Amino acid sequence: MEEEKILIRNASQVVTCSGFEAKKGEAMSDVGVIEDGAVAVSNGIITHVGPTEEVLRQVDVADYLEVNASGRALLPGFVDSHTHFVFGGYREEEFSWRMKGDSYMSIMERGGGIVNTMNATRNASYDDLYGDAYDRLDTMMDMGVTTVEGKSGYGLDLATELIQLRIMKELNDEHPLDVVSTFLGAHAVPPEFAGRTDAYVDYIIEGVLPHVRAEHSVTFCDVFCEQGVFSVEQSERLLKAARSQRFKLKLHADEIVSRRSRIGSPPESRECRSSVAYLRYRHQTPGTFGDDRDFASAYRFLTK
């Protein structure tokens, strides 16, 4: 099989994002820019990066398809690590409510927000959901995104959650972008479980998670841990069950309620309502979750 070789040369700037760990503070200003740079690629693997003259000395230009990037910048594709791109309907009417000062939670409590989109998603056809999601990925790609994490969470029932996740799997196979799937059945409590949040968590654990696991295409399990949605205890119960089925864990945390609470408070106390405070508590008292590595890493991320 003939090698596919591409040489991108004379880029005004090549942004390498050099390094192998996350940067913070002043180090974030160092993005590894190479002026008048070049990148050589062989069968999809980057083999050379550096100033154009240097790279040209290291490769046989005749073997490459050349791209002159003069006047352009070359940088790695963006990774969008939190998206909900498979859904039905839009909530444009809620924009005016927000402009009037209505809070996210007040809109959600009167049937707007997530539940509004849930109804539209449940009523949409597979083809419509697929087509709209494909178009959204196209838009992301036009903006330089090459990898997305896609969350379900607009079905809130077994059938529709599986449809969302299957569309993500299909798009990962058929669209140029890479799609990493996350199950977010605990995005909100659907109307049929109103006032019975614990029962809904039971339903997810017993009636949905095993089917999602059987899809063999879903990497993460997420939960919206927030006052008025899922409590710390309910979130922990769900994440324990997800971990036992070999999902990696994610957490929607402290979007609405301030994360300020007293360090060291146990999770049962009123002073430890936020999930960051809970993670802080767990980080200081390891060993109570079996393997605390997921929670330790989540703590470090959320409390930076």
List the helices and strands and how they pair.
Layout: E1 5-15, E2 33-42, E3 45-51, H1 52-58, E4 65-68, E5 73-74, E6 78-83, H2 93-99, H3 104-109, H4 114-123, H5 126-142, E7 145-151, H6 158-174, E8 178-186, H7 197-214, E9 220-225, H8 232-244, E10 248-249, E11 252-253, H9 275-284, H10 293-302
Helix pairs in contact: 5-6, 7-8, 9-10
Structure write-up:
With 304 residues, the chain is of the alpha/beta class. The chain has two domains: 72 residues, Roll (Urease, subunit C, domain 1), CATH 2.30.40; 179 residues, TIM Barrel (Alpha-Beta Barrel). 38% of the residues lie in helices and 22% in strands. The chain contains ten helices and eleven strands. The strands form two sheets. Strands 6, 7, 8, 9, 10 and 11 form a six-stranded parallel sheet that branches. Strands 1, 2, 3, 4 and 5 form a five-stranded mixed sheet that branches. The relative contact order is 0.08. The C terminus is likely disordered.
